[in-house]
Amino acid sequence: MRQFGLIGRNISYSFSKSYFAEKFKNENIVDAVYNVFDLKHIDEIENIFKTKDLVGFNVTIPYKQEIIPFLDELSDEAKAIGAVNTVLIKDGKRIGHNTDCYGFHHSLEPLLTPDHKKALVLGNGGAAKAVYYILDLLKIEYKIVSRTKMEHHLTYDELNEKILNEHQIIVNCSPVGTFPNIENAPLLPYQFTNERHLLYDLIYNPPLTKFLENGQNHGAKIKNGHEMLVLQAEKAWKIWNNLTK
């Protein structure tokens, strides 16, 4: 039985396990199983690598960067991004890939209009790095917003009407608003969002986060992270099974 899975911390809520269970059932894939490996510390990954018949696994918060020293190779995208969300075990080698960038790219691009010239990216973790990579690819200028003052970053306190008018895309890469803390939202001046804005939340649970709801209430276009997750999961499956199409 081929083994797949997800590593992360506090991930019992995971989308991936139910998604792949449904996929295996619908596509009559009977030689594979997908498990959740909840790790308190990244060092525990060595025990996961000893799993019999392990083909590959996904990586989520907070290990997308911490996993890298435990790998033998990185794909070009993973190397450029500096974060890994998919690992392939091939010929005894541990190869890191990033399919978050694929999922974000193909779920964002259909929503873009000529108005969408600049972006604010909320957060600077592993998932955010895939977002930076795709915004660079799409030639969309962006500013990173973080809670603490850092060089070339904005803080939430600095956001004002002028900045929001200049940045028509706002991408939430922070965990703020994830279930069960669904009443929370990044501290933005949402009153300055309007129909020219696109608010994209990498969170998928709940489907309508407070961040998205606040933007929607001011006429903004909104998108949650569900399609991105599906696209990145399918891309990971292709990598694990050496499928090119």
Structure description:
The chain is of the alpha/beta class and 245 residues long. The protein has 2 domains: 2-97, Leucine Dehydrogenase, chain A, domain 1 (Rossmann fold, 3-Layer(aba) Sandwich), CATH 3.40.50.10860; 102-227, NAD(P)-binding Rossmann-like Domain (Rossmann fold), CATH 3.40.50. The chain contains 8 helices and 12 strands. It has helices spanning 15-26, 45-49, 76-81, 100-108, 126-137, 161-166, 210-216, 226-240, and strands spanning 2-8, 32-38, 54-59, 73-74, 86-90, 93-97, 118-122, 141-146, 154-155, 169-172, 198-201, 221-223. A 6-stranded mixed β-sheet has the order 2-1-3-5-6-4. Helix 4 packs across helix 8 (226-240). The chain is elongated. The model has no long low-confidence stretch (mean pLDDT 95). Residues 6-87 form the Shikimate dehydrogenase substrate binding N-terminal domain. Pfam families: Shikimate_dh_N. InterPro entries: Aminoacid_DH-like_N_sf (IPR046346), NAD(P)-bd_dom_sf (IPR036291), Shikimate_DH-bd_N (IPR013708), Shikimate_DH_fam (IPR022893). Pathway: Metabolic intermediate biosynthesis; chorismate biosynthesis; chorismate from D-erythrose 4-phosphate and phosphoenolpyruvate: step 4/7. One of its GO terms (cellular component) is cytosol.
